[in-house]
Specification:
heterotrimer, A alpha/beta (241), B mainly alpha (634), C alpha/beta (330), A: 241 residues, Rossmann fold, five-stranded mixed beta sheet, globular, C: 330 residues, alpha/beta, seven-stranded parallel beta sheet, five-stranded parallel beta sheet, 9 helices, 18 strands
Chain lengths: 241, 634, 330
């Protein structure tokens, strides 16, 4: 999403009027990666991709989109209030995942709204499953997950046995654009909605503010004489040097 | 009745029998195509097309050399067919002639014409053969052409004429020999046609009659798809998914190559050749009719790369002398790629996503749509509605006009003109969305209809009647394609609107008598020109604004104008192969020596100014609105 | 009585201390000073890692908990998380600081889950008061600033890299050797290799700095100037406009814009780029934008934080030298 935000009168949520909901970036990669794994199976029809989302009814739109990409069915863990505590969210997800006997559970590396980057990891720990986070490459070989994680200026190769949880970074696969065929098929796929079992929230959003407006472009000078001033500003004001 | 009459009667029956078998076979092949009931409406217009384009060869004459040549053969055929009928009847009924049935003078006129036209045809085919054999005319070349077929056919026609003259000029056994040769050549010719690209001879006239009709705009409108239907195939993957008329186009094509010779993609070295598209349709259809289901038109005959090269400029359709619609095949195949298989150049994904999410192909904030109007005191429809007011016109700004820095200058210029003319107008601001043209032309009918329906809902909510816009794509969509979804508005392009304001004396212009003479060249926008026949308004608008204007035309202008390269969604794709189309066009514009290039489309603006800039040229590119706004007396 | 001591995780890689370690210790020091407690920093790695303890002490660690094991040579998420969690559960800490680097982002939620504690991630500001911690965090990819309250006996806080700058504040740094809480070789998740990326070939999507060139560079050969500037930054990737990739000066994969890559680095330097809509669409969400262009009317200056009007060919070498100089000092 790349629209100007208006804060709702509550002060803790975004004014959603006029906004279109879509799968968040990292979850989109995760759905794509899941579909590719299914397609690589000897018998793709024998494996199932299930998408789960926790939230109010608007998430059904997102779930349908995932199904139009190719996911087989969807579960909405219905929760209407604002929720930001990764631990609470992960507990509700883990409760749902526990019964599913999934071989692989995939999360986006982080959400776009709160960007806690913690829900997948906590859910894995609650399920007692091994987890590899923020992976940019994924292979399943001989019952093991083989993944690559990007580090600052380096990368790690990481492995763990299945069943496992992974969280997905960008670069793994560009989400496919749903075909009209997919969109039509998704309308008929099962979407189950049930209440989320959310525990006590210990991390609460008090308020949201817009960051200061980007100051209009500032021309700091002409020619090469302006370079020292630029370097000073990059160092001291923008703090990027 | 002699034995020879009997033999000839049997030969004639056999020849016509075999021909009618072939006609049935071909009709059967056409029935492989999709049902299309839009081919019998507007009969007066169809007859007019039939006369103009068919009988009077209007488009044929667009080529000054091949035009008269072809017309001689065509009109000759029309005249000589009478003689052929007489000859055949005479072969069966001894001594048969038209002469007892017409006045003597009439029959003499008829006979004279037979000879004159036969001579003209002979001359024309000789010239045609000479041209084919000695000059390699570029448009007649191409891997998809059947190069020997024309030589055979031309020789055949020549032989027909020679044997006809010979039979007239001789007696006895030589006459009989020539007469029989001529008769057998005629009947053979008739039966050769169904197996040749020269089926053209028979199919062209019906094809012209059945072509898309109905005047400016609607000719270029795309067929709406029923997205709720449980169609197994979206768009077209193979011949059975195309309209039967597209299949008939395959029969009507004689591979003259005029379409390919004006195709901006082909001219700049891309793989696309509109002629090949049509030839492929016929080839694939014939294979399908023979029961070969192993291949499909898409991929096996026509590749993705060809399809995505098309700018949808309609030059091919415009140029085709027999009104073949190459473009609709391309667009139906694109629909299948996008809707059925999600196969498209990856760089258009952001445009699709952004149109869906933000109502603009660029990732800009819808809230910024009206930023250009800051401080100009221009109301939005919502603001007017709140005051219970309704404007004279809605100014539909468009995405380029709202977000692109260069186009915003055009937007501001046009708004200034409207204000100076005292027009009571409003904009939609944040409520405006992309018109969807690029999505539709890129095959994404689903996204297009979503946008079109949203926009129509907005326009209906405000009871909008008249829309004026500076973008030919918005103009074409809202005016010509939105009626498919119940949106009927009077849509005017800004060039036309400004001209009418000026004609009414509403635009206060500076009277500068010491104005220097300026030389402009105007680049026609495809969606304004070929799609909507608006050629004069932009030119006239500038002439009115600049009385001292010297307007020079590029070699390719008006309905022959070369596309800027941005149409059909090409704006959002890479141009990796061959020369850049905008470079080709900018060079042509610069070669006129004009000191400014005028455009009337924001996409043309981007393409032309990019290319002019990259040449380090100081020639300016202006929108016609800017030309007028520069002369405002305020 | 409320907990007073503060825990800091000291990140290392390949036996080298990461800057993140000093940031975590500095943050912890600030809190410990207000609660009157001690800073306990944990250092985990292959045998010998304890040698780095002094550096942590210099930033304010009272105690350095050293976990040495051959099985910790590569980052061992399960063993390290278990060891940190065990320590937090027994140590009565008011807060535990991590830095949301690639490693910290992985580790902190593991620890939170094992301790059944909530976590505050990617935090730019924090205030510890009584039983609550108030934190700030940019949400929606930086479009809003969110303020949260974290309520927990031990506040697990993962700081945005660079949010706290390391400060010298020397403390005792008493070394306390601790064994891993689980046998590192029993971990299910195994890092089999850590590979250094080639500095030059940073991906546009990952690079924190992008130097991008447009037609103002005049010819392909002048991209050398852009590459030199990127090299001076060390963490920069080179991008280009569509005009440039269309001309074949750069590969199409380098294109930034509507039809190319959509990027949003910390710093974007546009060299000789006028700022066509198609280019702006791909980079306007960059955090800091610098534009160098000859035409002062160019649209790029409207979105640039800092602009220099002038000949890019003349300015770039000077800027490259200045950046090299500045980097030397850092």
């Amino acid at each position: 999403m790349d629209v100007r935000f208006k804060i709702a009168p509550s002060g803790i949520s975004v004014d959603e009027s006029g906004l279109k909901f879509d799968i968040s970036d990292f979850d989109g990669y995760a759905v794509e990666a899941a579909l590719q794994i299914k397609e690589k199976q000897a018998d793709p029809a024998a494996s199932e991709v299930v998408v789960i989302s926790l939230g109010p009814d608007v998430v059904q739109e997102t779930l349908r989109k995932a199904m139009s990409m190719g996911a087989d069915r969807a579960v909405q863990l219905k929760y209407d209030g604002p929720i930001h505590d990764s631990y609470a969210i992960a507990s509700a997800l883990a409760a749902e995942l526990k019964g599913g006997s999934y071989d692989l559970v995939m999360f986006g590396r982080m959400s776009i709204d709160t960007a806690n980057q913690a829900t997948g990891t906590i859910a894995a720990e609650l399920l007692g499953l091994p987890i590899i986070t923020a992976i940019s490459k994924l292979d399943i070989e001989g019952g093991r997950v083989k993944a690559r994680r990007e580090l600052e200026g380096a990368y790690e190769l990481v492995e763990c046995p299945l069943p496992a949880v992974v969280t997905i970074d960008e670069g793994i696969a560009r989400p496919r654009y749903p075909s009209l065929k997919g969109i039509m098929a998704a309308k008929k796929k099962p979407l189950e909605s049930k209440p989320a079992q959310v525990g006590e929230e210990r991390y609460k959003l008090d308020k949201m503010e817009l960051p200061p407006e980007r100051a209009a472009g500032r021309i700091i000078g002409e020619g090469k004489d302006a370079v020292p001033e630029l370097v000073r500003l990059l160092k001291e004001e923008a703090k990027v040097l | 009745m002699s034995a020879s009459n009997v033999v000839f009667a049997i030969v004639v029956v056999a020849a016509f029998g075999f021909f009618s078998y072939n006609v049935q076979r071909l009709v059967g092949e056409l029935q492989i195509g999709r049902h299309d009931d839009s081919r019998w409406n507007d009969l007066p217009r169809r007859f007019w097309n039939f006369l103009q384009i068919g009988i009077f060869q209007k488009k044929i004459f667009r080529d000054g050399v091949a035009g008269p040549m072809h017309a001689a053969i065509f009109w000759g055929f029309c005249v000589l067919t009478l003689g052929t009928i007489e000859m055949i009847l005479g072969g069966i009924v001894p001594g048969f002639s038209f002469s007892p049935y017409v006045p003597r003078l009439g029959y003499e006129f008829y006979e004279f014409n037979q000879n004159v036209w036969a001579a003209l045809v002979l001359a024309a085919v000789s010239f045609a053969l000479f041209r084919r054999l000695t000059k390699r005319v570029k448009r007649l070349q191409g891997a998809e052409t059947h190069a020997n077929d024309p030589l055979l056919i031309l020789s055949w026609i020549g032989a027909l004429m020679i044997t006809m003259f010979a039979s007239h000029a001789t007696t006895g056994i030589v006459h009989d020999l020539m007469w029989w040769s001529h008769a057998l050549l005629v009947l053979g010719f008739l039966n050769y046609l169904p197996y040749s690209k020269h089926l053209h001879v028979v199919v062209s006239l019906p094809n012209v009659f059945l072509s898309n009709t109905s005047g400016p705009g609607v000719i270029g409108a795309m067929r709406p798809m029923d997205l709720e239907s449980d169609a197994a195939v979206f768009g077209a993957k193979d011949v059975e998914d195309l309209s039967w008329k597209s299949l008939l186009d395959g029969f009507a094509c004689t591979e003259c190559g005029r379409c390919t010779s004006v195709c901006p993609a082909n001219l700049t070295g891309k793989l696309l050749s509109p002629r090949k598209i049509v030839v492929n349709v016929r080839e694939r259809l014939e294979a399908e009719a023979k029961g070969d289901h192993s291949k499909t038109l898409l991929d096996d005959f026509i590749t993705e790369e060809e399809l995505w090269s098309c700018t949808t400029c309609r030059a091919c359709v415009q140029e085709c002398p027999v009104s073949i619609d190459q473009l609709s095949v391309i667009l139906e195949l694109r629909r299948n790629l996008v809707l059925g298989e999600s196969r498209f150049p990856e760089e258009i994904m952001p445009a699709f996503e952004s149109m869906e999410q933000r109502g603009s192909p660029w990732a800009f904030d819808p809230g910024d749509r009206a930023k250009w109007a800051a401080g100009m005191d221009i109301p939005t429809m919502a603001e007017m509605a709140e005051r219970n007011e309704r404007p004279e016109v809605l100014y539909w700004v468009g995405c380029m006009g709202s977000f692109d820095d260069r186009s915003k200058k055009t937007t501001v210029a046009f708004a200034k003109i409207l204000k100076a003319a005292g027009v009571n107008f409003a904009i939609l601001g944040q409520e405006e969305k992309c018109n969807g043209d690029a999505a539709r032309r890129m095959g994404n009918e689903y996204l297009y209809q979503m946008l079109a329906k949203d926009n129509i809902e907005t326009l209906e909510r405000y009871g909008v009647k008249t829309v004026v816009t500076a973008c030919p794509h918005c103009f074409h969509q809202i005016g010509n394609e939105y009626p498919q979804f119940g949106g009927n508005y009077d849509v005017v392009h800004h060039s036309t609107y400004i001209e009418s304001l000026m004609a009414a004396g509403r635009v206060p212009l500076r009277e500068d008598l010491h104005e220097p003479v300026r030389t402009f060249t105007y680049h026609d926008s495809c969606y304004l020109g070929r799609y909507n026949d608006v050629y004069d308004a932009p030119r006239e608008t500038m002439r009115r604004a600049l009385p001292m204007l010297n307007l020079v035309e590029m070699p390719r202008s008006k309905d022959r104008g070369l596309c800027c390269g941005a149409g059909g969604g090409r704006m959002f794709m890479e141009e990796k192969v061959g020369k850049r189309i905008n470079a080709e066009r900018a060079e042509e514009a610069l070669a006129t020596g004009a000191d400014a290039i005028a455009v009337a489309c924001p996409f043309c603006m981007t393409m032309m100014s990019d290319s002019v800039k990259s040449r380090d040229s100081h020639v300016d590119v202006y929108d016609v609105a800017e030309v007028v706004a520069g002369q405002l007396a305020i | 009585m409320a907990n007073t001591n503060v825990f800091a995780f000291a990140e290392s890689r390949g036996g080298e201390l990461r800057r993140a370690a000093l940031e975590a210790v500095t943050a912890a020091r600030g809190v410990a000073d207000s609660t009157g407690g001690q800073v306990h920093a944990m250092l985990a790695g292959a045998p010998g890692i304890g040698g780095l303890a002094a550096k942590l002490a210099a930033c304010g660690a009272d105690v350095v908990i050293v976990v040495e094991s051959a099985g910790l040579a590569n980052y061992n998420p399960e063993a390290v998380a278990a060891t940190v969690a065990a320590r937090l559960s027994s140590g009565a800490y008011r807060a535990a600081f991590f830095v949301a680097s690639a490693q910290g982002r992985d580790l902190a939620p593991r620890v939170a889950a094992k301790c059944q504690l909530p976590i505050a991630s990617d935090i730019t500001e924090f205030t510890v008061s009584g039983d609550a911690v108030a934190v700030k965090h940019p949400g929606y990819t930086g479009k809003v600033i969110q303020s949260f309250t974290l309520r927990a006996a031990t506040a697990i806080i993962s700081l945005r890299p660079g949010a706290v700058l390391p400060k010298d504040n020397a403390k005792a740094g008493t070394v306390e050797a601790v064994a891993p809480a689980i046998d590192p070789s029993s971990a299910r998740v195994v890092v089999t290799a850590t590979v250094q990326s080639e500095g030059a070939k940073l991906d546009l999507g990952e690079a924190p700095v992008i130097i991008s060139g447009g037609r103002g560079l005049k010819e392909a050969a002048n991209f050398k100037l852009v590459e030199d500037l990127a090299a001076a930054f060390g963490n920069a990737a080179v991008g280009a406009t569509r005009a440039v990739t269309d001309e074949g000066w750069r590969p199409h994969s380098d294109q930034i814009g509507q039809t190319g890559r959509l990027v949003s680095p910390q710093l974007y330097i546009a060299c000789g780029i006028s700022g066509a809509i198609q280019h702006l669409a791909g980079m306007r969400t960059s955090k800091t934008i610098v534009a160098i262009n000859r035409d002062k009317e160019a649209p790029i200056f409207k979105i640039a934080d800092y602009g220099i009007v002038g000949d890019v060919l003349e300015i770039l070498p000077v800027l490259t030298a200045a950046v090299k100089e500045a980097k030397k000092g850092a």
